[in-house]
Amino acid sequence: MTDIFDVPELEVRRRRWRRPNLIVGAVLVGLVVATAAVSYVWTPFDPEQVNVADRFLGVGEAGHLLGTDQFGRDIASQLMVGARNTLFVGVLAVSIAIAVGIPLGGVAAVRRGWVEELVMRLSDLMFAFPAVLLAILLVAALGPSTTSAMVAIGLAYVPIVARVTRGASLPVLERDFVRAARGYGRGRVFIFVRHVLPNIASVLIVQATVLFALAILAEAALSFLGIGTQPPTPSWGRSLNDAQTFISVAPTLALWPGLAIALSVLGFNLLGDGLRDALDPRLEVRRT
Amino acid sequence: MTALLSVEDLTVRAGRSVLVDGVSFRIGRGERVGLIGESGSGKTMTALAVMGLAPEGVRVSGRVLFGDTDLLSLSEPELCTVRGDGISMVFQEPMTALNPLMRVGDQIAEALTIHRGMPGPEARERAVEALERVGIPEADRRARAYPHELSGGQRQRVMIAMAIACGPDLVIADEPTTALDVTVQAQVLALLDDLVGTGETALWLITHDLPVVAGMCRRVLVMCDGRIVEEGETSQVFSAPTDGYTASLVASVPALSRSSEVPPPKPPPPTDEVLVSVSEVTRTFPLPRRRLTEPRRRVTAVDGVSFTVAVGESFGVVGESGSGKTTLARMIVGLDHPDSGGIEVAGIPVAGRRDRELAALRRIAQMVFQDPMGSLDPRMKVGDIVAEPLRALRIAGDHRARVRELLEAVALPVDAADRYAHEFSGGQRQRIAIARALAPRPRLLVADEPVSALDMTVQTQVLELLADLKERFELTMIFISHDLSVVYEVCDRVAVMKDGRIVEVGSVADVYARPSHPYTAGLIGAIPRLDGTLPRAG
Amino acid sequence: MLVLVVRRLLIFAVTLWAASVVVFVVLSVLPGDPATLILGTQATPESLAALRAELGLDRPVVVQYLDWLGGVVSGDLGTSYISGLPIGEQILDRLAVTIPLAAFGITLSILGAVPAGIAAAARHRRLPDAMISTASQLGLAVPAFWAGLMFVTFLAVRWRIFPAGGFPGWSEDFWGSVRALVLPAVSLALVQGAILTRYVRSAVLEVLGEDFIRTARAKGLTRSAALWRHGLRNAAIPVVTILGLQLAALLAGTVVIESVFVLPGLGNLLLQAITRRDLLLVQSAAFVITAVILAVNLLVDLTYPFIDPRVRRT
After folding, report:
1. A: neighbours with 3+ CB pairs under 8 Å?
2. What's A253's domain CATH number?
3. pTM reported for the whole predicted model
């Protein structure tokens, strides 16, 4: 009838937000966002400025914090501007996934029966098309671009969001407060928006941060393959592709963009983890 | 003579709170001791600490002498030899306490393999014997079954078989029958009584249910907030408690559970005007298909049920799990629809109407649900929760004033409106739920197990509140419960349901004093009584 | 239980068909005209029309689709009109690289993740757990292809332990082919393993909190005995679910890895086909990939009744 554990309220509340995951994650994400924001106003050098005389400079040489690439362009500046693209694709892809996935999952959870079955089968079908594959198809049809990449990634994640939404909604819909709401005449849509969504919000937020991390990886992969962001827009993934060509000449060229990707992904993952623990409803204090 | 188990100053701490506070007691060889406590009293934690199974992160101190050995000083491998062999434990929820992926017979045999070093085939044979001993028919076929293929009562028998397989000196039973229907409870208690027998094995029975202890244990301990507040011979403690808390516990035991003597009849209901009329209502649910070619099987939850409820009456519906009473309740308030049959509330037809047409019904019939945690939206403030029916049904008037009025009526502080549900206790949340149900000024209140999830002392308060509100607001009540004693306290007439059908209906006094159906008689006979008469099994 | 299997097979067949429709539809949106691609922009309208008729491009879309579908089912995928090579053969050749690579990768990741996840859960909140959890966080933040690049830089270019790329062929040089797959498989396994470790860990942790583990210990089993004999099989259920999903991601990953290590796999074929606007090849190759994903998921689905008796009764 009760939790065996009954930890005092204050201790729990304070501990929730001080977790290392959350802090490190927030810091890393903040760093990426800040870098992208700053890049609109200032970068150490002009990222597109070609200076063939100064190609393949090493770390710190001639004022270039991270060196220069095969065209003599400053790597640090390129990375800063590349951050914009990364965030842009991430935000839009996740937005697509959420905008389509939540209603789908919600409909499946609320309506049950054949509608649910159909939606779940459709999402199973979508699972057979991982982001990269879907992007390849879209690119084959529409040509490579940031938009194809974004749409492909977003659509590829729709089934994940739909499944998570449905899975989290079902237990909430079984709770008596939903029955009570039906008991005084609230309609299904109202119940989903006003009663279910706020209660599953924490699950969805965590899922969104994880998807953001995955989107960054997917975009990098697509740009690396040459079917994502096209030149001249700077992209971390494409820088890695360039680096591959010159791997014998300048092996460290691949280091910096890769590190940038890894750190951003790590940041979002840690943020998601930290949020999951912090928002865990089991830590909400209840007395019986 | 050394006691079998001697607990000295046992203390369990988690963080800064103390869950078990300096508890001391003894259990002698072959003795039967009960431990009574409500939720949060620390009774389960005490048992787990004795077994060395307290959750991680918790600090245990004191001494637990089992014979001559202090269990708290033993290492984990040493404790493993004691657990299951010297002391064994039966837990509350048999569905989750058994490994769902392992056959039942193997789970019992495991105890024998570990402690007696028995080879597999022999252990399995003995497991089958153990199953027979606990009264499971076709034991050797059942031994190969998985937990989900057995009923709740059978699963609990399996747990007991596992616990006694190695002939322990002490069996700890933590709420062993709480999750079971009352007739099954009677059987399982009788089984425990028989197995623990005449002095070989000691029994430590932990429960919140006083009459159960009365029937099973010679001595009883009462626990509150981690401390033992009273101790003594059961009959003595229950008839003349010295501690205030114990007294309130005893007082909260419903009349029917006090003795087998039939209490005096209650006055008849006030009017004959019918408010609710249910006729030939049937509801079935589809089951998953076993073969593609087979027609879809259905399970009948409610089967041709008919009855009427008069204005101002308190009508009880009693049944065990699976009887269909909750489905019936939902249909009456329009939350579900029967396959056939009719339901009318205050002349408004309910059955088979679409959601939109039921607005009129919703103003006059409201429901109070069982689970105080689940019936309130954790993201909403209490004031909004209580006001929601007013908003949804577009009832005119000053909502805030009405909310204040309602909170007052259910004896909650007015500032409760700005707080969240989780800040309140179970009993208080139920009051909020009642306030919400009363918001649209209904004529009919359907209460589905409204007190089953509450502690005994709180139950009495909420039942009194319901009775009071019924008078004040001239309500008609339909009271659904599995607990006959509670229904006896609260209702004028009662219908007994089994497998979707009503087997008996009549005034409470008549049905309880002179049940005409054997099922009813069986239910009444199975209620454990405070005066120590053990329930008749089966 | 037969019902279960039949039902799953039916769903598989329908989903497979639906996937073929999706692939075909997406690619019919293609703005370019294959005839122009082949003959060039200077070609006369008559010769373009003639070529289109020859390639069957003037028929209604549904007929084109059914024709292609029929080819898929019967195994005759036709010939690419860009390269002139038979498509079916090309795909099979490439599968001979991609499938072993994926299998190698998933095996390595399981071999690494399962013990790591269990160890982390068993020593929850202590040093081994912290280390394993941190390692897995890092592992899944790293793009697999970057890991591949780093491996190539250090292990292949600097210290020539493994080849930097290329694939000799199974019949030409068996062990050389295996060696060629090592670094790519490890790159894949690094990321997949990290993800799997986290799932295994959380599945085991969840199981350890279940009531029946407490019952097992109350019976006298030690913590580790309770974990091994009762916990693991139960933890396997969610892990198997994840495995199914991960396999799709892994196959997608091979597409990228093949690019890093210059392996003649299916993904590589796809990318080449896109650049050359070889519509038919893209169509068939993409469909084969989804078919493999769906087939693997079917197999994973069919293992459930063996692990979980509750599922056997439909």
Report:
1. B, C
2. 1.10.3720.10
3. 0.84
